[in-house]
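P.,

For your records, the input lines for the assembly:
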Amino acid sequence: VSKLRVRFYNVHFGDAILITVPDKNPQNGQTTTRHILIDVGNAPLVASPEGGDDSVFKPVVEHIVETVGDAGIDLYVMTHEHLDHVQGLPHADKKTFDGKLAEKLPIRFAWLPGSAAEDYYDTHPDAKKQKLAFTAMYETIERHLQLAGVDKLAPFQRFLAINNPASTKQCVEFLRDMATEKTSFVHRSVGEPANGTPLFKVKNTHPFKEVKFEIWAPEEDTSDYYGSFQPLALAEPVAGVAAATEATPLPPAGVDAGAFYNLVDSRLRGIGDNMLAIDKAANNTSVVFLLEWRGWRLLFSGDAEIRSWKTMHREGVLKPVHFLKVSHHGSHNGTPEDEIFDAILPKPAPDNRKRTAAVSTWTETYPGIPHEETNDRLKTRCKFLTTLDDEDALFYDVEFED
Amino acid sequence: MVRLHESLKDEYAAKGRPRPSLVEAAESEYEQRKHDVRDTSRETPGYDRLDAGEKHSARERVAQKALFVGAERFKRTIYRGLDYLPPGDVSFADLGRAILAADQASHPDSQEQRRWLTDEMVARGIAPNAKALAVKTNHHAAAVDALDLEGLIESDWIAYQFAEENRRLLRIPPRVPFEIHPRLDVTKLYWHREGRRDVREVLFKVSWTETERNDVGRGLPRRRRVTVGTTLAIDAATRAIRAVLTTENNPALREHRDRFLRALIDAEILQLSDASLGPDRRPLQAAVRADVFDGVLRVRSAARMLHILPEGRR
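Structure tokens returned:
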């Protein structure tokens, strides 16, 4: 019996997904077992903010290498520029395979989000403006928190690490050059709709003969994914001034100290808002794609958040699926509500095929994740699987039979 | 305020004998100057007998006085309206009624500015018509006439007893628990044509909650809790009820709240429980927090934001 198999590797907080699918060439009738690898990364540990943890990554990457064998990966998909999605392969290359990962795990084709292209911001001025503003805000917050001391830095450390533009850039540069045949920087791209159905332009970006793909997100212009910032009143660091002084400025002479500190405190609270805004912007640039195989429809959503889901809904690309890779590790804002939710997991189901939602997540990493109410909502529509079901397992898998 | 000032300035600055209540200061100075300039004549000069410089100076003083009067009326209108505002989830219409009621209670005969405000509120869609903004002022009720006012101010027990016995007057639904707020005992300075007058008012505020349908969707419960309330303003000297103002709550406002809450959620501003906290577990600056208790939604910190205009009305 032919099966499509999706393995969710346990990388703690992050994604590493391997899809193995029999791909039949309609012209010669030959079937080739092909592999799609999505992401590979996990959240840096607070104790090791540089990222990567051999005890987690090594067995995962070794298993992937062993599973795909010499054939390697037919299509690698990097969903978005967050360290918990991109650092795995560069890390393994450096620490496990002595710079020879490409030999052990050859990759033929790769999809990276359009905004990961080297020249993307040269050709998209609106997105560039937003990106620069967000990078500047990141640097401002990072500098402020480092000066403010360990206690104030700690809750933000993982956010800072995952969103670190310099670390992420290194990983993306590595991934851009992994594919031996072609790297494509993808976004939702449709031709003239046929009978109201969008025609997705993915030709020549992958080697598959039978499997069909639709790229639902991101939009080419990513500027819409950026939210707004709260105004911050962060003192600029002054050389020689102690951190404590920077964090607790004195009120001007004659000003009521309580009122002044209330205002300072209120303005500092915007750090949380702005850090989340930075995080969301990258999540919303996730590559979201549909894979169709012998009547099964599988949706891989990266870390797309509500803003991206709303855009997909507005653009009319959503349709019922049999499998949902739960977005953003099961956060409340990774799974849409109401009509958008109904569009992908309608009630009742449109056919008799089983439906499954699967999440890769970990506890005590990001506040509010996993989110029980979201899990419960998914359970009302389909079978629900999580890496937390067996924390010691290397992976869990979902199979779809022909 | 600018409109008020301009009106007063234009009206009175051009007159030879401006109204004393408006231009008392200017006139007394004018009298002094008249005395200085025409010391020997003792006759009453007309404005037109002053030279150009004196006329300019008199106009300037009158304009300054008019600005002062305008500012005082602005304070009277806006601040006292805020005093009268009922507790709870208010709309701009509630604020409009409170402003008009406070002004009408203190200056029943001075209607022109109230008409401006009423017209503006109707034009902006804050209320459907002038009638919807009308409030009965300066009337009597037996329960208030017989009230131990000092006891009401000082004693929470008397305050609760008064509210329980006068639910109808205060528009508290039967059997609904309510909360009495600290009573406000205020003395306000009023300027009338006959001069200044101090008026002592007692503001009695009571609030309760109503559960209403919540058609927001977006994964929120089907019911939500809304705080409403009443302000009773009593003239301490006469025991007249200056005004009774109760938060308006009707199906149209409920739909407005639905739309507003939906917009807040879609803008990722309204956040449930812990989602309203940042990475450091402190409240996000821009988030409006909502909680769910026993399947009922309660929105916090948006109590005075729940108003939107119907589409197409500006």
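Two observations worth noting. Chain A is about 35% helix and 20% strand. The first strand of chain A starts at residue 3 and ends at 9.

Regards
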